[in-house]
Write a structure and sequence with these properties.
Blueprint lengths: L15 H17 L3 E2 L5 E3 H7 L5 H6 L2 E3 L5 E4 L4 H10 L9 E10 L11 E10 L4 H17 L6 E6 L3 H16 L7 H9 L10 H8 L10 H16 L5 E2 L11 E8 L8 E7 L3 H4 L7 E7 H11 L11 E5 L2 H16 L4 E3 L6 H10 L4 E5 L1 H6 L2 E5 L5 E4 L1 H8 L1
Parallel strand pairs: 1-5, 7-8, 12-13, 12-14
Antiparallel strand pairs: 2-4, 3-4, 5-6, 6-11, 7-9, 9-10, 10-11, 14-15, 15-16
The structure holds adenosine-5'-triphosphate and magnesium ion (MG).
Adenosine-5'-triphosphate (ATP) binds next to strand 6, strand 10, strand 11 and helix 11.
């Protein structure tokens, strides 16, 4: 027996309605916020992620599914959704259209991580990308989209954490302060953070090791280092969120795992699903489009993990309507009945009804049992007598009552 690869999951037929529900809600929210869908390939040239995500990140250094294809090109399965969209934005000249460009996607994401609750090697993200606006209003809009999505699926009590990580100018000074602070604690930090100290000290603030977290608690705070423009941007975002009635906490430890962020970063965090509580992370990345070869274009967005979203929904009792069963089940009672049920099924399906008919050759008793199990609303018996008269016995499964009907009457009754 060949098993599923570690860290991946099947969505079985009995669960797929939950995914459909979430995807439907994504599209409803997208419509309300006037976003259009963008679809990009599941794999890209490795170079894109090296440049776009950043070669000091855990994702690029440790987590990518990279291989050479038969033509000898280095290919990587998407480890996040944004870099591919930035590439597509440039390659398709989307910047020539009236701006901003407001896009969303639903995509699988591949990361070679240690599988655990809420952490998979293939997961799925709903993401939003807003390109062409540099304002704090755009950041607020992006946060409102994420929040609307959470509300739409019945999640109310996630905390929103925001922060600013400044621009390359003010961050340089802050990085200096971090290097000095963490340098004095290097002995107590994990090996990954020791490596980060030189290359990307900001990431130490995001370390999940308890020891490192403690040290990070006392670290200098970026908000004290922001330049005037970045400070004002941050204040405008706070004001916009207040105007929109959005509760938030300014959390200087939110720095995000990808190199491309500038200024605003944010996360929606749940305490209902254990340690992997971040359901959605995003922010502003004004340098990204230029970084991957386009004209400088301000951008903001987020990625929301659908598996984690479903976990929060499950653990907080957010309801997902059960799929509705067949409108009608056609039960042939004789050989000829199969042909008649086939014709009837075609006609009823053409009219838009969900029709299940017996195709396994079971006894009447077994058919009824099955029809009840799959939640059929009505069962039509098609026996020799019925065929001759053109009048069928129709059982109403909700109350067990039966009556005789022509196909025309049945069609009416199903409406
Ligand atoms: P984390 O801090 O949990 O590792 P991240 O910062 O790496 O998350 P992002 O790259 O911002 O996450 O991805 C956006 C969202 O995708 C996350 O908030 C989370 O909901 C989801 N996600 C990320 N990695 C995984 C994973 N390995 N398995 C399941 N969901 C994930
Ligand atoms: Mg991660």
């Amino acid at each position: 027996m060949i098993n599923i690869p570690k860290g991946t999951k099947d969505v079985t037929p009995s669960e797929s309605y939950k995914w459909h529900y979430v995807e439907d809600k994504v599209r409803e929210v997208a419509e309300e916020f006037c976003l259009q869908e963008i679809r990009t390939p599941v794999f890209e040239h490795t170079e894109l992620f090296m440049r776009g995500v950043g070669d000091t990140t855990d994702i690029v250094n440790k987590e990518m599914y990279t291989f050479n294809d038969k033509g000898g090109r280095s290919i990587t399965l998407k480890p996040e959704g944004t870099a591919g969209v930035a590439r597509a934005f440039i390659e398709n000249g989307l910047g020539e259209n009236p701006q901003p460009t407001k896009m969303y996607y639903i995509t699988p994401v591949f990361r070679y991580e240690r599988p655990q609750a809420g952490r998979l090697r293939e997961h799925h993200q709903f993401g939003v990308e807003v390109y062409g606006s540099a304002t704090a209003q755009a950041d607020a809009e992006v946060i409102l989209i994420a929040r609307a999505m959470l509300h739409k699926v019945g999640i109310k009590d996630l905390s929103l954490n925001i922060n600013s990580i400044g621009c390359p100018e003010c961050r340089a000074e802050y990085n200096g302060a971090l290097k000095e602070y963490f340098g004095a604690h290097i002995e107590e930090m994990c090996s990954t953070c020791r490596e980060r100290l030189d290359k990307n000290p900001l990431r130490i603030l995001d370390c999940k090791e308890e020891g490192c977290k403690k040290i990070a608690d006392e670290a200098p705070v970026i908000l004290d280092y922001l330049c005037d423009e970045c400070r004002s941007h941050h204040e405008q975002l706070c004001k916009a969120l207040e105007t929109a009635g959005v509760k938030y906490t300014v959390n200087p430890h939110i720095v995000r795992g990808l190199d491309y962020y500038t200024r605003t970063v944010f996360e929606f965090i749940s305490n209902a699903i254990g340690a992997q509580g971040t359901v959605c992370g995003g922010g502003r990345y004004d340098g990204l489009v230029k970084q991957v070869g386009g004209k400088p274009t301000p951008a903001a967005g987020f990625g929301m993990g659908i598996e984690r979203l479903l976990m929060v929904m499950q653990n907080t009792g957010a309801e997902i309507p059960l799929p509705k069963g067949p409108d009608v089940y056609l039960a042939p009672l004789c050989e000829e009945g199969y042909g008649v049920s086939l014709g009837m099924a075609c006609r009823l399906r053409e009219k838009g009804f969900a029709v299940e008919r017996e195709i396994s050759g079971r006894s009447l008793k077994a058919q009824l049992k099955y029809a009840s199990k799959i939640g059929a609303r009505k069962v039509v018996f098609i026996g020799e007598d019925e065929i001759v008269k053109g009048i069928y016995t129709v059982k109403n499964m909700a109350d067990g009552t039966s009556c005789a009907m022509t196909e025309e009457e049945l069609t009416e009754a199903l409406k």
